[in-house]
Amino acid sequence: MPRWRKLNHFNHVMDISFSDGSKYEDISKLMTSSTEPPNLMSSLICSFIASVNMSMLTYHDEIVASQKNHLLSGSEDDEDNLDGDPDDMFHVKLGAAQNEQTFEDLEQLHANDNAFKRFRIKLADFLSDSLPAHGIPLPNAKRIKFMPNETVTEHRFLKVNFESIVDWQITTDYLRCSPSFYNFARYDCVILQTQAGPMFGHLLMLFTCIVDGRTHPIALVHPYDAPVGPRSLKDKHFQFWRVRERPRISSEFFSVRSIIRGAALTEDHNVPGDYLVIDTINTDMFLRMKLMHGSAGHLA
Fold first, then answer.
1. Is 208 exposed, middle or buried (0-12, 13-18, 19+ CB in 10 A)?
2. pLDDT tens for residues 45-99?
3. Residue 239 and residue 288: Cα distance in Å, rounded?
4. Directed axis angle between helix 283-295 and helix 40-72, to 10°?
């Protein structure tokens, strides 16, 4: 099962010597995406988790109404409660920078991984198309070409601030893209904003590169947007959102600013290359997935 911040991690659950309410709650969250085939117990667990999230939505609705009344009252203290520049509230920030490495060394290091094939050329093509689309002129008005000895700087941590659709407050995800985080490889999944709409993907590498003196934060992502076909009975029963990976050679570059938030996905071992979105990790994800189900025409 995927690791997630503020979620207890279990190697097994059948012989836990000590537990409390929070551990049982986290076990139930994970069970909703791993139970198969559908049965009475799994249905009850799904219903319980859904009811907990809906009760949290009701609670947050009450908070929002209270805050709205407070704002309408015109309190003189409101301005003092703002922390920092409002324009800086929505952003992503890279961390855990590694040593610079050349494109040549990077491609040799990942020579056996199709996701990194033609890394230097694909990155140049991506930036040549995306920079003008965002109003940034290309150097000398020519398409970008990187030399093998030019460098990038890898990062293994990403902080994403986003507006929760539960209460419109700023929420933060702390994401990892590291071959060793507490002695485990950890490459988190994310939701990205694309022209076609939200897309799930798996982080492969976070890095910065410099073009014409300007630093650009980039993510190499394994897209999970291959067609999945008709929904199975299990997916309908549990209201699963299924995604399917594309071949690794179809990896794509995205600006890290395209990342909406992190996501927890678990592999469906019965269908290689398929993953199920865990919508129970928090109320924001639960509500986002309900909206996506509605947009896709899935019946509740």
1. middle
2. 555 555 655 555 555 455 445 544 433 433 333 333 333 333 344 589 999 999 9
3. 13
4. 100
Nearest CA to 147 out of 126, 122, 120, 125 is that of 120
What is the Cα–Cα distance from 152 to 157, expressed in whole angstroms?
16
Mean pLDDT score, 198-216? 97
Cα separation, 194 vs 44, whole angstroms = 36
Angstrom distance (rounded) from CA 85 to CA 78: 14
Query: What one-character DSSP code corresponds to residue 70?
Result: H
| Alpha helices (H) in 197-277, listed in sequence order | 233-238
**Joined tokens for residue 2:** 């995927």
> In angstroms, rounded to a whole number, what is the distance separating the alpha carbons of residues 184 and 131?
35
Q: Which residues lie below 8 Å from residue 79, measured CB to CB, with a gap of 6+?
A: none
Length of the chain: 300
From CA 160, how far away is CA 82, in angstroms rounded? 19
Between CA 157 and CA 95 the distance in angstroms is 5
Distance CA 156, CA 204 (A): 10
